[in-house]
Amino acid sequence: MPGWTAHDIPDQSGRVAVVTGANGGLGYVTARELARNGATVVLACRSQTRGRAALGRLIEEVPEARAELRTLDLGDLRSVREFAGTLPYERVDLLVNNAGVMALPYGTTADGFETQFGVNHLGHFALTGLLLPALLAAPGARVVTVSSMMHALANIDPGDLHGDRAYRPWIAYARAKTANLLFTHELARRAAAHGVDLLAAAAHPGYAATGLLSAGPRASGRRVAERLAGLGNRVLAQSAEAGAAPVLYAATAPGVRPDSFTGPSFAMWRGAPAPSWRAPWTRHDTAGRRLWTASEELTGVTYDALPG
Questions:
Q1: Per-residue model confidence as pLDDT tens digits over 27-86
Q2: Residue 89 catalytic?
């Protein structure tokens, strides 16, 4: 792992990868590097306009790429079901649950879920469950879910998953990112309990220069905060390429362990991929089971091959 970069990605020929939020930032870099190394990549994007631009850019950068664009809105379970139901592959070797929103003003998804919890966790929970037959059809398939070092700000509140009692944007974001890690923990536990050849791992980019940080201030009209976010991206953050390295490591490197959490090596901030610290509540079996049950009830998606 020391000094690992995208140049160390093993050959991905013959593998099918789905990357959510692949129209920009970490998702785009992840999709591009997987395609560069031979994978057939599905860019799962909410915006067709931005998705088409990303696909065109990818083909320009990697002319030999096998890549396609498909619409996926993680804030709408109908879209998630349509995406999974029309995906034309009998097997999926890699699912990168990357798309997300950060510190937005309070809002709800099409299904009435608080937006950050609904998009960052429930949408990916439903997508993974619906693609589970295709994942299990691929020997050694991986599910890599992108969390954040900001998960350390808050544990989930089982009695207030949607922030109805007191909504604070950054706490809601932290809880959603904790949910990502609890989901990974419980998926890895279930896969092991049933002897299933499926690797569930998590990663985070540290502080990477993407548009995610400025989206919340922009949505709430806080222009000063938006400008500060842009300044931080220019001065303090590492590039999207560097931020995607932990995700690509978790997705492709040999020896990645189930329920591992990979991030930048220097203070969880920047640097080459390395094992990352995570809050102890993200490895809590009972919390993982409770979140899983609640997620099944809210989405209507059950993992029949991996019962609790």
A1: 999 999 999 999 999 999 999 999 999 999 999 999 999 999 999 999 999 999 999 999
A2: no
Nearest to 94 by CA among 19, 162, 22: 19
| pTM summary value | 0.91
C-alpha span between 74 and 44 (Å, rounded): 10
> Residues near 9 by Cβ (< 8 Å), separated by ≥ 6?
33, 34, 36, 37, 248, 252, 253
| Angstrom distances, CA of residue 55 to CA of 7, 28, 70, 74, 128 | 21, 9, 10, 19, 23
Catalytic residue among 28, 89, 106, 173: 173
* Confidence band of 235 (pLDDT split at 50, 70, 90): very low
Tokens, residue 138 = 């691929």
Check: CB of residue 263 under 8 Å from CB of residue 246: yes
Longest CA pairwise span in the chain (Å): 52
H-run or E-run covering 200: strand 198-203
For residue 216, what is the enclosing H or E element?
A: helix 212-219
